[in-house]
């Protein structure tokens, strides 16, 4: 299925707060009560609609253990949105939010949208963190906030979709500058078109060498965040071929 934009998300927070369960509920519409601890990162994706436009969410679920913190930090780069998750029944997971937020602000795009999620709202009878405390933390730090339940699916859809809506608004307001990505991918498409028309071959360039190098360059640029703001507009190769003059 085609889509207009691709948004990269990262899910962060302490071990056992339900990050993987939130992802599974959102992508597969199911709850898995017993879930192995995430080792490094896990990945999920789903299509949604924002302002009548198809958007693909690429979601990275990270490990909460301190031993994997350095790996998690490498996934902040290029993320347009983050779900910062705590468990409303475990006070310590709420107390650690400031540390997670500091990491995110240090290693991620300054314009990243962060949704604070108080998970396990179905266990409100065991609540250790009040709704008002979560709301106040979000207000103080400029975050969006809602409580959710990966088990009952309450507010799970809303958490992911509302984050996407905030990202999309930033695009419309010009907060995310996609011009560098448009220029980069236009140049990539131009080279591919030249190769397709044999112009590169006639100029004695070796396609068997050039193509892998080109694709490797694209992958490296996306991976290190050089041209990737976490928002990828999927229409670059439809742009007109630029003149070589």
Automatic annotation (TrEMBL):
Entries under InterPro entries matching the protein: P-loop_NTPase, Rab_GTPases_membrane_traffic, Small_GTP-bd, Small_GTPase
Membrane topology: Lipid-anchor
Compartment(s): Endoplasmic reticulum membrane; Golgi apparatus membrane
Single GO term (MF): GTPase activity
Main location group: endoplasmic reticulum
GO CC annotation: endoplasmic reticulum membrane; Golgi membrane
Taxonomic superkingdom: Eukaryota
Listed Pfam families: Ras
Keywords: Golgi apparatus, GTP-binding, Lipoprotein, Membrane, Nucleotide-binding, Prenylation
Family per similarity comment: Belongs to the small GTPase superfamily. Rab family.
PANTHER family (UniProt xref): DRAB11-RELATED
Protein name: Uncharacterized protein
């Amino acid at each position: 299925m085609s889509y207009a934009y691709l948004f990269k998300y990262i899910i962060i927070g302490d071990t056992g707060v339900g990050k993987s369960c939130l992802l599974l509920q959102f992508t597969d519409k199911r709850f898995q009560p017993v879930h192995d601890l995430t080792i490094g990162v896990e990945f999920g994706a789903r299509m949604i609609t924002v302002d009548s436009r198809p958007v693909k969410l690429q979601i990275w679920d990270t490990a909460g253990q301190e031993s994997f913190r350095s790996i998690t930090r490498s996934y902040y780069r290029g993320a347009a949105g983050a779900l910062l998750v705590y468990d409303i029944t475990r006070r310590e997971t709420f107390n650690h939010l400031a540390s997670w937020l500091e990491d995110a602000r240090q290693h991620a795009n300054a314009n990243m949208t962060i949704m604070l999620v108080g998970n396990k709202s179905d266990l409100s009878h065991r609540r250790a963190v009040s709704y008002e405390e979560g709301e106040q933390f979000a207000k103080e730090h400029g975050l969006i906030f809602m409580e959710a339940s990966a088990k009952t699916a309450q507010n799970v859809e809303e958490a992911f979709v509302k984050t996407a809506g905030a990202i999309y608004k930033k695009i419309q307001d010009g907060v995310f500058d996609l011009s560098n990505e448009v220029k980069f991918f236009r140049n990539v498409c131009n080279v591919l078109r030249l190769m397709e028309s044999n112009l590169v071959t006639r100029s004695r360039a070796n396609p068997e060498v050039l193509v892998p190098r080109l694709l490797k360059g694209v992958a490296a640029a996306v991976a290190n965040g050089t041209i990737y703001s976490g928002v990828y507009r999927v229409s670059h190769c439809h742009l007109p071929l630029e003149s070589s003059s």
